[in-house]
Amino acid sequence: MADGLGMTSEEREDLCRQVDDSFWVMRAIGHYISLCPRDFFNSVPGYPPLPNDHDGFSCGAHKDYGCLTFLYTDPTPAALQVFTYNVDVGSDVSDLPAEQGTQAGSWINADPIPGCVVCNIGEMWEIWTNGLYKSTLHRVVHRSKNYRVSIPFFFEPNFNARIEPLAAALRIQADKPNPGRKEYKSVVYGDFLLNKVGNNFADGKGKY
């Protein structure tokens, strides 16, 4: 990101201070039965398939909260989906979070590619770049017969880091005026995270 935005050395150092106490979070969707690496995907139950007559979601539409997510999954196709905006193939706004509004777009499959991981941009990255990099809106609709295993690694900034648009991003946008462009508000990551989690599970039932 620093290279892409053309940040100065001083700006890079300031950004590093916001993530010098950052942390990775790993979550396996399922639970371990065997710790032997060669047995891993044969022994870790994950998402159960949705019933054929079920019109719901295995994991509802959402964006990841932090900076970056690296996702490793089994080969199950047509499960992970991402929302693409302003496409010309019709509009499908089903399962969009309220804050997304009804902007035209469609859900497309993000099928696993052998030897690769999926990289999702988180909401803090979107704020830092004032929208130059968009956080990935995604969901899971798993209808295959197998259990689907998903192992995400979440990279988060310091809990008390104040995240706000970087000067380098604003410089780029200043060269390309856009009257409709908004400037993102600053947030303290810990407050943002607790608010998101609290809203999602306030009634005892996760929205995702």
From TrEMBL:
One of its GO terms (molecular function) is metal ion binding. PROSITE patterns: FE2OG_OXY (PS51471). Signal peptide: none annotated. Residues 36-157 form the Fe2OG dioxygenase domain. Pfam families: 2OG-FeII_Oxy (PF03171). It comes from the Eukaryota. Keywords: Iron, Metal-binding, Oxidoreductase. InterPro entries: IPNS-like_FE2OG_OXY, IPNS-like_sf, Iron_ascorbate_oxido_reductase, Oxoglu/Fe-dep_dioxygenase_dom. Belongs to the iron/ascorbate-dependent oxidoreductase family. This is Fe2OG dioxygenase domain-containing protein.
